[in-house]
Design the sequence.
């Protein structure tokens, strides 16, 4: 095997969330992981590299969702845990990075109540100011989103 010095990065995309997670950048000149290129590949001359990274802690959040690991797919609902290892392989001539997305899993809730809220519109407006969108005009949707935002005893 021949070792080539080349910067390799993992880029983190919030995938609809907010916050920051620092990208991970490394090179093969002494920092880990080392990028190895196989020799003796087909006549196309392409060399292949395999790089293993330790995935960053999640710094993103998304209202109504739980972080469920990192994935290379923006539509995944589960992935590799933060702190876990991820390996990717690509051709030398292609971009030397991979984009990781938080695998957001929608939270689920069950509501039991008498069906009447007298200040629904005030609550709906406050929830909208906190980034919530509404699909209906129902009190139940306001109650659910209020619970998600304010949770028992937290506000």
Sequence:
């Amino acid at each position: 095997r021949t070792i080539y010095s080349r910067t390799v990065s993992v880029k983190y995309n919030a995938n609809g969330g907010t916050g920051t997670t620092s990208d991970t950048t490394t090179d093969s000149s002494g920092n880990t992981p080392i990028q190895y290129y196989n020799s003796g590949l087909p006549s196309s001359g392409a060399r292949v590299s395999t790089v293993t990274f330790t995935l960053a802690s999640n710094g993103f959040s998304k209202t109504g969702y739980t972080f469920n690991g990192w994935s290379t797919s923006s539509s995944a609902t589960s992935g590799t845990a933060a702190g876990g290892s991820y390996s990717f392989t690509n051709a030398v001539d292609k971009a030397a990075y991979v984009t990781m997305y938080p695998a957001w899993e929608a939270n689920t809730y069950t509501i039991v109540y008498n069906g009447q809220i007298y200040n629904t519109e005030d609550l709906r407006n406050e929830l909208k100011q906190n980034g919530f969108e509404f699909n209906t005009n129902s009190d139940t949707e306001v109650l659910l989103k209020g619970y998600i935002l304010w949770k028992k005893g937290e506000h």
Summary: Confidence is low (pLDDT under 50) at residues 1-5, 28-45. The first strand starts at residue 2 and ends at 3.
